[in-house]
Structure formats: C-alpha cells, structure tokens
Write a structure and sequence with these properties.
The chain is an alpha+beta fold. The protein has 3 helices and 2 strands; from the N terminus they run E-E-H-H-H.
Length: 50
C-alpha cells in the first residue's frame, strides 16, 4: 500500500472500507458528468477499484 501523509491530507490507495463512500461518489450522475466514467450502478463494479 502506498501512503503519503502531510499535515493536512493523507493520500493512499483505496481499501475495502472505502467502497461504500467511493460507490456513492462514482454512482452520481452529476459527478460523472465532469469525469471520464459512466455512473456505477453496482457496488461490485466500484469494489474492483481497491
């Protein structure tokens, strides 16, 4: 796992614990409108990111 930590943000790889929040973000049509992906309709698709 890669982890980069500074005084404020912490950058790291996704973990299984992140799937619910990441899925919520990636399933938003409003978010995907400005990104290069279609909204995720299944949590298993999001889970492949970790």
């Amino acid at each position: 796992m890669i982890r980069f930590e500074t005084e404020r943000p912490i950058l790291r790889n996704y973990t299984v614990d992140d799937v619910p929040g990441v899925h919520e973000y990636f399933s938003s049509a409003e978010v995907s409108r400005y990104e290069d992906f279609w909204p995720h309709t299944k949590r298993t698709r999001t889970g492949t990111l970790s």
